[in-house]
Amino acid sequence: xxxxxxxxxxxxxxxxxxxxxxxxxxxxxxxxxxxxxxxxxxxxxxxxxxxxxxxxxxxxxxxxxxxxxxxxxxxxxxxxxxxxxxxxxxxxxxxxxxxxxxxxxxxxxxxxxxxxxxxxxxxxxxxxxxxxxxxxxxxxxxxxxxxxxxxxxxxxxxxxxxxxxxxxxxxxxxxxxxxxxxxxx
Length: 185
Hints:
Blueprint: E1 7-11, H1 17-24, H2 27-30, H3 41-51, E2 58-64, E3 67-78, E4 83-90, H4 99-114, E5 119-125, H5 129-137, E6 141-152, E7 155-165, H6 166-173
Parallel strand pairs: 4-5
Antiparallel strand pairs: 1-2, 2-3, 3-4, 5-7, 6-7
Helix pairs in contact: 1-3
C-alpha cells in the first residue's frame, strides 16, 4: 500500500484538463459517475472556465509519486447547511493500490477541518461493491436507496446514498492529529 506522503491532492489546473479528458472519455470509468462519456475537449475547457471561481466546488488532482492518478471532488458545497457531495475517480492503471482510500481521507480532512463541513454524502451504484467497501471502511453509512436513478448501458441502475458526519470523522481520526499538514512557512 502506498505511503500517505506519496499521495498529494492539489487544485485542478488548466494543464490537468488533458488528463481529465482521458478519464472523461473512458466509458468504464464514467459509468460509475453516471455521466455520458466522450466529451469534447473544448466542452471540458469551457466548463473549466465557467467554474474556475465557483465557491460551491473544490476539485483536486490526486498526485501519486508526481503522476496524475485520479480526481477527488467536493461539489454542491452548501455553506448554510454545511454539506457537500463527495466524488472520486481513480485512473484505471492506479486502481487496486489503496490510492482511493488515502486520497479520500485527504479530501475528507479538507472538507471537515478546512471548510468546516458538517456532512459529506455520495451516490454510488448499488452493484459497485468495491467502492461501497471502501466508503464503509472510510466511515460512510448508508442513508437510503434510490430506485432506477440513472440510465447506464441500456438499463436503469439503483444507487445508494451514503454519508459521514464531521463529528464521526473527527472522532475516528483524532489519533492521527489530522492528515493535512500546513505547507506555508
